[in-house]
């Protein structure tokens, strides 16, 4: 038995496209429904949160999640990935560097610094799933019923491995990851590439255009004017020429 977006607590962004704001870090997870397949965008901060997303997605669609896109390798977006057994996992080329070896230990340490329970962090990092599919430029997913979704490697910017998800339609929807944040100032950690961040936002605007709805990694859905203003603010903040 399926439920509606409203009944589930998810926000409907466009026909067959929704998102929810997870507690704790106000991290966004997105859902795109096709006739044959279901795409989840980002997986939450632990196996429990990932399992919650899996259950809610199945209640909304009547089917399991078949594809998972990770917008960037930060703990609140990737540590729930192992809850989606059998899903085809996508990330920007090179993301394996941040999800294996020393990168895995840095991911664990970052989760603990931000207050994630140690047991939850260690369990999730130990089970961490690395993307099977590396997106170098663009990758089109056919979800069936005429629904195609474009995965675009638009980074570096917020991290070295930023992936955006464009869902064509009326309106078009762009899942931005943390390249765009609405609920606070964009966070530039030690893995950010500030000199390229404004260009990554230019690429988002090229993908979606003026009438798209832009879904940030944290906060409310925004429009092109918001993305453009954030782009200009980041360029000024980091001394990047306009």
UniProtKB/TrEMBL annotation:
Q: Does the keyword Transcription apply?
A: no
**Pfam annotation, one family:** Lactamase_B
User: Care to name a GO molecular-function term for this sequence?
Assistant: hydrolase activity
Record's superkingdom? Bacteria
Q: What InterPro entries does the annotation carry?
A: Metallo-B-lactamas, NDM-1-like, RibonucZ/Hydroxyglut_hydro
Record-annotated Metallo-beta-lactamase domain positions: 26-218
Which keywords belong to this entry? Answer: Hydrolase
Q: Which Gene3D superfamilies match?
A: Ribonuclease Z/Hydroxyacylglutathione hydrolase-like
Q: What is this protein called?
A: Glyoxylase-like metal-dependent hydrolase (Beta-lactamase superfamily II)
């Amino acid at each position: 038995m399926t439920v509606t977006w409203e009944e589930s607590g998810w926000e409907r962004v466009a026909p067959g496209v929704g998102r929810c704001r997870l507690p704790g870090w106000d991290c966004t997870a997105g859902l795109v429904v096709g006739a044959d397949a279901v795409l989840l965008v980002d997986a939450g901060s632990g196996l429990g949160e990932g399992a919650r997303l899996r259950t809610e997605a199945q209640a909304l669609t009547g089917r399991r999640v078949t594809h998972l896109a990770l917008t960037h390798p930060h703990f609140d977006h990737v540590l729930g990935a192992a809850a989606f057994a059998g899903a085809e996992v996508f990330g920007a080329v090179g993301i394996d560097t941040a999800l294996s070896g020393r990168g895995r230990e840095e991911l664990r340490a970052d989760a603990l610094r931000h207050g994630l329970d140690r047991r939850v962090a260690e369990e999730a990092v130990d089970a961490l799933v690395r993307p099977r599919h590396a997106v170098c430029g663009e990758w089109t997913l056919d979800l069936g019923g005429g629904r195609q979704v474009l995965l675009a490697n638009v980074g570096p910017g917020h991290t070295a491995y930023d992936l955006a998800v464009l869902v064509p339609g009326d309106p078009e929807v762009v899942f931005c990851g943390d390249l765009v944040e609405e609920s606070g100032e964009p966070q530039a950690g030690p893995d950010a590439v500030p000199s390229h961040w404004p260009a990554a936002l230019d690429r988002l605007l090229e993908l979606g255009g003026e009438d798209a709805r832009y879904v940030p990694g944290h906060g409310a859905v925004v429009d092109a004017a918001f993305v453009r203003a954030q782009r200009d603010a980041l360029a000024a903040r980091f001394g990047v020429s306009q």
